[in-house]
């Protein structure tokens, strides 16, 4: 969590609730490229069609424990969805002040004024500060329940989801994307370039000095 508003409410549930974050937006965002696709020379965007994404979520039936450092999945430690819960939610954004009173909260095109935030665990992962509203975030949320405690989790990604993906190289991506993908795995992927590719003129300026 990179937002203090939700982090302060999430510390007690960090081994019960997990998220995978997506951007629900057809247009590219240079702000998102700058924030999340670093370093620039390696930055890519992975896109999944909405229809495929929804089918994938409906078919998830088990959540595995994983190693938070190596990302290795422990298939012997898991919880079925009759105990855990998988859901998809659009993040709402609030302008909460230091007195904990929210004057305005937005979610998609809906707006609610004079909203008083309740310190309830069920709200964790649903509300962020409106400084992050440009992310247009949608989250795949895994709620393990109060009796299951994992350090990290994993869910299966079926072949048809991977086959549906498009890999977009970032505005300052270095090298041939298809060749670099081929070095990682033996699979044909749909690829394309960012709409900002070749539009950002980049001059390294580390160590530059400025004079008046």
Structural key phrases:
212 residues, alpha+beta, 4-stranded mixed beta sheet, 3-stranded antiparallel beta sheet, 18% helix, 32% strand
**Backbone structural class:** alpha+beta
Mean pLDDT value: 82
What is the chain-wise order of helices and strands?
A: HEHEHEEEEEEEEEHEHE
The number of E-state strands comes to: 13
Helix content: 10-25%
Q: Largest sheet, described in full? A: 4 strands, mixed
What share of residues are in beta strands?
A: 25-35%
What does this structure look like?
By secondary structure, the chain is of the alpha+beta class. 18% of the residues lie in helices and 32% in strands. It is globular. The mean pLDDT is 82.
Q: How would you summarize the topology of this molecule?
A:
Elements: H1 4-10, E1 17-23, H2 30-36, E2 44-47, H3 50-59, E3 62-66, E4 73-80, E5 85-90, E6 92-94, E7 101-107, E8 110-116, E9 127-129, E10 137-143, E11 153-154, H4 159-164, E12 166-169, H5 177-184, E13 190-193
Parallel strand pairs: 6-9, 12-13
Antiparallel strand pairs: 1-10, 2-12, 3-4, 3-11, 5-10, 6-7, 7-8
Provide a quick synopsis of the model.
This protein is of the alpha+beta class and 212 residues long.
């Amino acid at each position: 969590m990179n937002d203090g508003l939700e982090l302060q409410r999430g510390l007690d549930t960090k081994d019960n609730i997990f998220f995978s974050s997506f951007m629900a937006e057809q247009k590219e965002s240079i702000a998102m490229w700058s924030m999340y696709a670093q370093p620039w020379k390696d930055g890519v965007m992975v896109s999944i069609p909405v229809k495929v994404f929804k089918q994938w979520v409906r078919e998830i039936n088990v959540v595995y424990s994983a190693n938070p450092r190596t990302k290795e999945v422990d298939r012997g430690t898991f919880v079925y969805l009759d105990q855990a819960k998988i859901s998809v939610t659009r993040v709402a954004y609030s302008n909460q002040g230091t007195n904990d009173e929210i004057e305005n909260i937005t979610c998609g095109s809906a707006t609610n004024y004079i909203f008083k935030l309740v310190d309830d665990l069920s709200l964790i992962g649903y509300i962020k500060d409106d400084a992050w509203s440009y992310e247009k975030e949608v989250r795949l949320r895994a709620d393990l329940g109060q009796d299951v405690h994992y350090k990290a989790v994993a869910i299966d990604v079926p072949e048809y989801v991977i086959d549906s993906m498009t890999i977009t190289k970032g505005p300052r991506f270095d090298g041939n994307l298809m060749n670099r993908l081929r070095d990682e795995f033996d699979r044909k992927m749909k690829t394309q370039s960012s709409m900002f590719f070749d539009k950002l003129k980049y001059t390294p300026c580390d160590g530059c000095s400025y004079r008046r």
